[in-house]
Design goal:
two-stranded antiparallel sheet; 15 helices; 2 strands; 2% strand
Length: 298
């Protein structure tokens, strides 16, 4: 008789616990599908998608490179081409490559890295941030799924802790009674097996809850989407051009162009401008003067 009571009690508790887990799975999966559907329906402008993963300057440089406005050499120094210096040539229609082209023209004829412009050129930063704010304002609010079921509030955390304590106490009591009370007959043994099986299932409940949270996780759906999207200009580059653009975008020290002494630099930047940077900037042009056709003058 005791084993039957234990089996019924353990089965009821296990069914209730897994019903809560199943209900949480269903609610989180439904919310995740709604979030992914909302993100998939977004019409992201290519430069905005690149900005969300911090690749907008590389995309703008790629468009200028493909358009013949810009040339980037192996060390990452960017300079205007003859077509890019033409004042009458129509600039790119998009504000980001147009702002980058104007920034490179401000340093012309000295070489400058894309990373230097992106980090220190104030006018380019203003135009880039204005574009990003304008595009971000067009995004709808994207809901999020809590990482932890107790995240919504302190009351839910307290209720969860109380429930875990009661569940552990129930598990220990039923297990102790199953061990101490010897079953009699087939019905008693069957009830004991059912009760033991329910206790084992309760032992895996925590792992089942973690699996539900992992399979229904949706922490950064917009970031996951933009990471799979490549800007058309970057996709049109070959591997050598792509490597040069990334090298120039990562460099904010070697190629600095011409710095006006009257301009206010960022805090700490004046200390970084040592006496050797002028030699770095003019080394590129000296190499051009010595090797007009790619061969040393002899």
């Amino acid at each position: 008789m005791l084993q039957l009571v234990l089996a019924v009690s353990a089965f009821t508790v296990a069914a209730a616990v897994y019903a809560v887990i199943g209900l949480r799975w269903w609610r989180r999966a439904r919310k995740r599908r709604a979030i992914l559907g909302l993100v998939a329906a977004l019409d992201l402008e290519p430069y905005h998608a690149s900005a969300l993963k911090s690749e907008e300057v590389e995309a703008a440089a790629a468009e200028l490179l493909l358009g013949g406005y810009l040339d980037i050499d192996g060390p990452g120094a960017a300079r205007l081409t003859e077509e890019g210096r033409e004042p009458g040539r129509t600039p790119p229609a998009h504000p980001l490559p147009a702002a980058l082209l104007q920034a490179v023209r401000r340093y012309d004829p000295e070489p400058v890295s894309i990373g230097w412009i992106n980090r220190y050129d104030a006018e380019y930063q203003i135009r880039r941030q204005a574009y990003e704010r304008e595009q971000d304002a067009l995004l709808p609010p994207i809901p999020r799924i809590p990482r932890d079921p107790g995240e919504p509030g302190r009351l839910m955390n307290c209720c969860g802790c109380v429930g875990i304590v009661l569940l552990v106490g129930f598990w220990c009591e039923v297990g102790m009674l199953l061990v101490l009370a010897r079953p009699h007959g087939v019905r008693g043994w069957a009830a004991a097996v059912v009760a033991a099986g329910c206790l084992v299932a309760l032992g895996y409940a925590e792992g089942a809850g973690r699996a539900v949270r992992a399979r229904t996780a949706c922490e950064d759906p917009l970031g996951d989407r933009v990471r799979t999207q490549c800007h058309p200009a970057l996709a049109a580059l070959d591997e050598r051009q792509r490597l040069r653009i990334r090298r120039s975008a990562d460099d904010d020290r070697m190629w600095r162009g011409v710095v006006d002494e009257d301009d206010d630099l960022d805090d700490g930047l004046e200390d970084d401008l040592d006496d050797d940077w002028w030699a770095d900037a003019y080394h590129y042009r000296a190499a051009d003067d010595d090797e007009p056709d790619g061969k040393p003058l002899g």
